[in-house]
Amino acid sequence: MDIIFILQLFIIFSMIAIGGRYGSIGLGVSGGLGMCILVLVFGMQPASLPVNVVFIILSVITCVSVLQSAGGLDLLVKIAERALKKKPQAIVFIGPLITSTFTIFCGTTYVAFSVYPVIAEVAAQAKIRPERPLSVSVIAAGIAVVASPMSAATAGMVAILAASGVGLVQILVVIMPAFLIGVMCACLSVFKRGKELEQDEEFKRKIMAGEYQFLAPEIQETKQKIDPKVKRALIIFSLGILTIIFFGTFTNLLPHYKLAGGEIERLSTPNLIQMIMLATACFIMLFARIPANKLTEASVFKSGLIGVVGVFGIAWMTGTFFEAYKPLFSDSLSHVVRDYPYLFGLALFAFSMVIFSPSATVAALMPLGVSLGIPPHILVVLYPCVSGDFIVPGANQIACVAFDRTGTTKIGKFVINHSYLRPGFALIIGAVVSAYFISQIVF
């Protein structure tokens, strides 16, 4: 290991540290700067662009943004509000199931954000400490990207593991039930956390000082007739997802092509997802009769594009570095991962904790795992480990502290000692352990 390697590694981490301060766009452009230094200064050969991952993300966010323009996401939020208010005493379990379902269905945590204030208020009305359902709901929504066929992280996994013969359905068959078990572990970890609401000192102080009043008017339910166009949009979107899962299950139904060398190649899963998502968006646009001007107003598309920039820059930079030193990593780490392959999960968790992005972690490190010879089924088991971004509180976590008017949801003075740590670790550990046993059956 020479001084050049150490210097280049320092540049990689410096770019990640600099970009991480500015979010996904910052990571993307700092990754571009890192590429310039590695290629133009050190003469490294650029790695292949993460084209499949980027285009899958673009097609998915296009479809979800069209659904948002049709009013489909707003309808999902209304349905969630009704479910939460119907069984308030079970909100510790219902809340995370709803928020994670939104993420699984849409591939983004954006929709779940609208439900957090409702969870906080419904819990308070039921005299349940809001920290319990709110903390686990935020964590479940964030980590649910690994169980979503629509997420950028899963798109990356599909593209990376396709060459190993592992497809979308195999990933979901392992991860979906493992994630649900992990959610239950997280719910149980906070079920009796802290004092009961009426015994909490901070809450009693707020009541005495008149700083808290029950029956927040913003969550009063108003019955509205659902527009048939919105229903059609949701049905079409659901059919699009089911179509991807169907063809992912019955791959023999996919078109086959004869290559120049006489080999037969089947339509790849990344291309399938891209086509189906764009076609689904088109059907929603036509049958929901969305005005042209509304198509450009969807906030999901903006947030999705920001994520694309982050994945693009970071994945390209780290891919270039790992490709250049592939023999070194293979020689020095192959015996370790051969004997203890699950230690790779710690690397995934630590990396995601630094760059705050499961999809960027997948794009950056999963190819390294493949090149090190880690069996694909183990990489699938370790997939939940890419969700370590909850360690340092992000926008959703900070916002939910404000949503909890009772003051029970907290971020400690050391920043990382916050209400979300316990459910976060419980969910990931529960999911990985469950995925291990499920993978023994699937693979």
Automatic annotation (TrEMBL):
The keyword Transmembrane helix applies. It comes from the Bacteria. It is found in: Cell inner membrane. PANTHER family: ANAEROBIC C4-DICARBOXYLATE TRANSPORTER DCUB. The chain crosses the membrane at residues 27-44, 51-70, 90-113, 134-162, 168-191, 233-251, 271-288, 300-322, 342-365, 420-438. One of its GO terms (cellular component) is plasma membrane. Belongs to the DcuA/DcuB transporter (TC 2.A.13.1) family. It comes from Campylobacter insulaenigrae NCTC 12927. GO terms for molecular function: C4-dicarboxylate transmembrane transporter activity. Keywords: Cell inner membrane, Cell membrane, Membrane, Transmembrane, Transmembrane helix, Transport. The keyword Disulfide bond does not apply. It is a multi-pass membrane protein. This is Anaerobic C4-dicarboxylate transporter, DcuA/DcuB family.
